[in-house]
Amino acid sequence: MSNYFCINKSGKSVPVYSDTDKKNKIGTIYNREAFGYNRNWGGDDYFCQIVFRNSKGSLSAGFIIDPPNGALTNCTDYPYGNATINGKSYKTFIMRSSKTVYTAGGSRWGAVAANCRVACQTAMAGDSHPEWKGINYVESSKGGWVAVTGDGLSYGFVDAGLSTASDYNSIPMYGSW
Fold first, then answer.
1. Is the dihedral of CA 117, 118, 123, 126 positive or negative?
2. Read out DSSP for 150-161?
3. Mean pLDDT, to the nearest integer, of 3-10?
4. What residues contact 57, with CB distance under 8 A and at least 6 apart?
5. Which domain of life is it from (predicted)?
6. Residues near 113 by beta carbon (within 8 Å), at least 6 away in sequence
7. Is the predicted pLDDT of residue 148 greater than 80, yes or no?
8. Stretch (H or E) spanning 167
9. With bands split at pLDDT 50, 70 and 90, how would you rate the model's confidence at 38?
10. Residue 109 neighbours by CB distance under 10 Å
11. In angstroms, rounded to a whole number, what is the distance separating the alpha carbons of residues 6 and 76?
12. Which of 15, 53, 115, 154 has the most beta carbons within 10 angstroms of its beta carbon?
């Protein structure tokens, strides 16, 4: 099971807790806010471990308990657009600022420039970094698509920018949510 980069599209503010007992609320995921969902942790979509930007502006791990419908929406349900690359269909996201791109193994691959897009087929996020969005291609600032490769795999990750912002109007990697 892979991790996902998600958006809260429930229309509600969803509390985040430090544990699965709901004893210590540590934050809130607001409507249209992005976060990383650590599906590898388990919890069967009832106890959901996430990585989110807390009120102090830092990345933090926590739990959403029994999320409302739409709270765990895959980011690929709301892409910036679509692109056909080498005969395959991809979802695209626009980068509002330059961000680092990593190989599948986590080594630095390069960067994607501001106002360029990244392309992917799924909402996959990193195992070690659920705040990193899995991607297959980066749009070059000179035009065209560049495959993200390395470690013998045909995908990598982009830092989606949760350490900078997580709301829809300022997150560095944006779709149409």
1. negative
2. BTTBS-EEEE--
3. 98
4. none
5. Bacteria
6. 95, 98, 141
7. yes
8. none
9. very high
10. 21
11. 8
12. 53
Nearest alpha-carbon partner for 154 in 120, 117, 114: 120
Rounded Cα distance between 118 and 11, Å, is 27
For residue 84, what are the CA distances in angstroms to 147, 156, 174, 175?
13, 18, 19, 17
Total count of residues recorded for the chain: 177
CA nearest 61: which of 18, 115, 6, 94? 18
* The pair of three-digit structure tokens given for residue 89, joined into one six-digit string: 């269909």
CA gap 19, 126 in Å, rounded = 22
For the chain, the first-to-last Cα distance in angstroms comes to 24
The stretch 137-145 carries a mean pLDDT of: 97
Q: Which amino acid is at 65?
A: I
pLDDT for position 164: 95
| 66: its two tokens | 């029994």
Euclidean distance between CA atoms 160 and 91, whole angstroms: 15
* 141-159: average pLDDT: 97
3-state helix, strand, coil in the chain (%, to 5): 5, 45, 50
Separation CA 92–CA 80 (nearest Å): 6
